[in-house]
Amino acid sequence: MLREQLKKMNMLLDFKYFMEFIDSLELDIEAIFEQAPELNELPVYSLNGEKVSVFFKNEVRPHNVPILLNQSAKHPLLVAAKYITPKAKKSLKANKINYLDSYGNAYIEIPQLKVYTEHGTGKPVIPDTTKVFTQAGAQLIFQLLHRPEVVNETVRHLAHISQISLGSVSKIMNGLFDEGFLVQWNNDKKYQLIRKEELLDRWIPILNEKVLPNYKIGTYSFSGHLEEQWKTQFLRPNVWWGGEPGAALLTDYLYPEKYALFTTFEVKEIMTVLKLVPDPKGKLTVYQPFWGNPHNTAIMDYKNTVHPLIIYAQLIHSGEPRNIETAQIIYNEHIAPKL
Questions:
Q1: Within 10 Å of residue 167's Cβ, how many Cβ atoms?
Q2: Is residue 206 part of a domain?
Q3: With contact defined as beta carbons under 8 Å apart, do 47 and 108 qualify?
Q4: How many domains does the chain have?
Q5: Which residues constitute the domain of residue 282?
Q6: Does residue 313 lie in a domain region?
Q7: pLDDT by 10s per residue, the chain, length 339
Q8: Is 271 in the same domain as 318?
Q9: I need a surface site. Which of 66, 96, 298, 307 has the fewest CB within 10 A?
Q10: Is the whole-model pTM more than 0.85?
């Protein structure tokens, strides 16, 4: 019952936003709500009598575009968002995907309507300069997304499992509260993480652009025939697959072309124990774990892989269609049920 009420409330909000977005164009466009979304389908609106399937999103960033390219729709797809980054708009237009934002920027090319307006305006719903979406913030958000129950742990515990300072934890938690991702839900001052899907979406680029580069050990090549035997030759403590090989292990759907490996081994051990060869052009990138207690199997109990959240984020950020399709499988099977 509650889920249905929330669904109806979201539909009403989407309708309100859509009509406001259309009004912001200041053009004579007749917009009509035609059909509510059915299972795994998008809501349908009409613009000057031409039906479009509308994908609503708070913000659209470049890493979202490959997902939109794979989005199934009964009618021409139109992305409606409060904010779309300049790079995302350029990519959407290049791929002939219609879009509309809250600032009167639009690209719509359907038989009964052709619009392209760009005012150079718009700002993120949550500023990129926020104290939440930093390297330290991303390391803490990872812990909160895959184990939401730790949100009420002590600051010291959160700092330990995230490998960040006590002061950073306090700033980030306050930021999450101020920006509506954290709410107090009873009189005992217990907190709950909300808007998890949106938080995950904002976390993906920060993980790939700020966290992983700082934990990168180097790039390597396999020695001998190790690449052919990667599934069996690296089954050992202190080694976890991420990215494409991690996805292959989770889904049996993807054959890796690029490899990501997380390990607590030092550089010397990477060469002597894992038999990997330093190579600036190598296809295998090795990282240190960015989470506390890397030996804790409760965190990494996924077939010698890192947590599915990390694998999903790496696949999505790659922008490669074959990775996006596999990422969706991982999201549906390992992530969505727990968000």
A1: 11
A2: no
A3: yes
A4: 3
A5: 215-338
A6: yes
A7: 545 666 677 788 888 989 999 998 889 999 999 988 777 789 999 999 999 999 999 899 888 888 898 888 999 999 999 999 998 999 999 999 999 999 999 999 999 899 999 887 777 766 655 789 999 999 999 999 999 999 999 999 999 999 999 999 999 999 999 988 999 877 676 889 998 998 999 999 999 999 999 999 999 999 999 999 999 888 888 899 999 999 999 998 889 999 999 999 999 999 999 999 999 999 999 999 999 876 554 444 557 899 999 999 999 999 888 898 899 899 999 998 888
A8: yes
A9: 298
A10: no
